[in-house]
Amino acid sequence: MTKKLSRKLPIGTTLCVTTSSGWRPRAAKGQAFTRDDLAATAVALADRDGLDVVSMRRVAAELGITAMSLYWYVDTKEQLVELMVDRIFAEQRAPVGDDWRSRLRSIGQDTLAMYRAHPWFIQALGRPSTLPGPGQLRSTRRPGC
């Protein structure tokens, strides 16, 4: 009897699977990666070369692992892009200011800086998505707005 293992891991978990034979799939040189590591690598790749260049194979090459190893963390490239988008949203800071106008100006300035730092971000937002991630939800909870 074969058990089907879910490959969807919560953000921040590391991969450590042991089978009855003792075989453990691991990253190169015994490193274990988190989904956040994958997202950070993919964001750096997209910042450097553009979103179209981001592929499972390229991200895996940047991490020094095989492309198939990434499928333990995400099922598709779309999920990887969702992690990338969520990571960028998580970088946004809370708005500053005493009144609604100054807070709105702060949000606008931070958003513009985000788009300038990650020019591929608008293209990634245009893709069909499932649910927003924790970083995106955190960015919508703005106290005082």
TrEMBL record:
Residues 55-74 bind DNA. It comes from the Bacteria. Transmembrane segments: none annotated. The keyword Mitochondrion does not apply. The keyword RNA-binding does not apply. Gene3D superfamilies: Tetracycline Repressor, domain 2. Pfam families: TetR_N. Residues 32-92 form the HTH tetR-type domain. Keywords: DNA-binding, Transcription, Transcription regulation. InterPro entries: Homeodomain-like_sf, HTH-type_TetR-like_transc_reg, HTH_TetR. Coiled coil: none annotated. This is TetR/AcrR family transcriptional regulator.
